[in-house]
Model the fold of this input.
Amino acid sequence: MDYQVQLNNGQAINLKNAEFDATAFTATLNDQKINFVNIGGAIINKHIIVSVLPDTATQPETETQA
Done:
């Protein structure tokens, strides 16, 4: 499945065909001894992660006018 990791600086990391274990990721984020995580090969500070969403949830909606 494809995911998008949204960061608090307005940037995003797109993950294609990623396997995501939400339970393990949550445990990592809650571990006070860990400050950095590897997401798609990028080592980032876990405190800048805003959300991890399926890529389909991040597609902009198009507006149609009548």
In short: The two ends are 35 Å apart (CA to CA). The helical segments are 22-30.
